[in-house]
Specification:
The longest helix is centred in the first third of the chain and has 31 residues. By secondary structure, this protein is mostly helical. It is elongated, with a radius of gyration of 21 Å.
């Protein structure tokens, strides 16, 4: 019983570290492989930033083109 408790105490940091790594992996995967809804959300955020004057039209155009290109890649993947 004492060893069970001690084992759990010693394993807690490892378990927390694993959860953190899983969260980081999941977020990185979302960033590298966004789905259509995430791209739409980012386009809306981009539009909001432009309207608020937080980014220039040029920056908007550059970022919008990147997002549209990602969307096209997703579409190509669905067709394959």
């Amino acid at each position: 019983m004492v060893f069970d408790v001690l084992g759990k105490i010693l394993a807690a940091p490892v378990n927390m570290g694993m959860k953190l790594l899983e969260t980081i992996r999941d977020e990185a995967d979302k960033e590298l492989h966004p789905d259509e809804s995430q791209i739409k959300e980012k386009l809306i955020e981009l539009q909001t930033l432009l309207e608020a004057g937080q980014i220039s039209e040029r920056e908007y155009d550059v970022q919008e083109e990147k997002l549209i290109e990602r969307w096209r890649e997703i579409q190509k993947g669905k067709e394959a």
